[in-house]
Amino acid sequence: MIRVTYEGGMKFVGRGESGHPVVMDSSPRVGGADSAARPVEVMLSSLGGCTGMDVVSILRKMKTEPEAFHIEIETERTPDYPKVFTAIHLIYVVKGDVPEENLKKAIDLSLEKYCPIANTLSGVAKITSSYRIEPSS
What we know:
The protein is α+β, with helices and mostly antiparallel strands. It contains 3 helices and 6 strands; from the N terminus they run βββαββααβ.
């Protein structure tokens, strides 16, 4: 179970089984204090974390762990409320000696099989991906 607790203004703190807090807030324009990420940012960050952990884990098993790694997430939303996502594009950026075929396989496995967040969101938004491998420094 996850519990999300109202802390005043527009601040909420979520805690799951791990006990770690996930703090959310809004801008002062709508009554918040701008003290934390917005809920939609948290959701998209969760998507990135979920698929990112899969990719790193799979690459480790292939003995091709990257030196550095991040995911850029671009979105498209409907203009009217509830402004749902219609498209989510994930750009996986890897630095180091990671064979392209390993990276592609890791991404595909994550998005098609392992990441529950990506598989849930794919029911409402088209999820696409691309990748870039940057050389070691």
